User: What shape does this take?
Amino acid sequence: MSIKIFISYHDEHPLIQSDILTPIQTGCADAPKLFEGMLRDDTGDNISQHNRKYCELTAQYWVWKNYDKIGNPDYVGFMHYRRHFMFDGWRGRDDFVWLPKGAVYFVPFMSKDYQQIHLSDKLIMDTMKDCDCLVIKPYDVKHLSSHNCRTQYGKLPKQDTKYFDILVQTARKLFPEYNQAINRLAQGSVQYLCNMFVMNKALFLEYNNFCFSILQAVDKQIDSSSMDDQAARFLGYFGEFLLSVFIFQLQLRHGIRIKEVNAAYILNDKPLKLSYIKYIKYWILYKLLWGKPRQKYKQKFKELKHLKKLYI
Assistant: This one.
């Protein structure tokens, strides 16, 4: 069994690399600098120039269209330089989590043993040997006070629910056999996050045909020419929704072995020195301020509080 899991990089950060783990730079077509020691998404058949809309999905597209160049593996997957599957089953602290009651846990920084403990090739092979598809445990957006996935999408920076409606309508038109799974997304509150997965080759090829057929059709219906970079990320967000639909569809089939695991979110490249002055400062600001500034300093205080527990 051969496996390749691609780690998407858009900025320079420490490399995570092994026989299985393969770094790839996204958005290379317009990148001010090309990074050493990793693949690029702008060779062969690619959509690298559209990275501002597709985000990390430009790497996924490149792998799909250039599968022979990656060794034709039996399994292929994607993670992010700071978001990783925990192949050893690790679970973080419930008070130090990316989203409330979610399965993506903050990690202050990667220790020298981090990759060997959580991401070793042996752990990955053992996890996938009786599995067809691996994803992060699903998340219910009701924990974010959103009625459903459509509502939550509308809360994202500079995103409009009318685009979500276009996504749903387009998916129904192009893949009517997915209607039950599409309904589950359109009417429900559960989704699979981060555009992260590992799939066997057959499912990967099927998923990408499903995903990019819809995204390209949606892109033609939405004028993004005057959007800033944040607003233009709609196709990247839609990738998460389409991954959710695809997993829902797989759950309707017989014999597809799906595993759901925890994930880590790395906060910093290097260990941070504890600053008790900052610790007190963030606590005061968190208590005195309101609205978004309060949430900002509340999060900073929680991070330092967790670091304090780790170091003492």
Notes: The chain has a mean pLDDT of 92. The chain has two domains: 3-268, 276-311. The first helix runs from residue 51 to 54. The two ends are 43 Å apart (CA to CA).
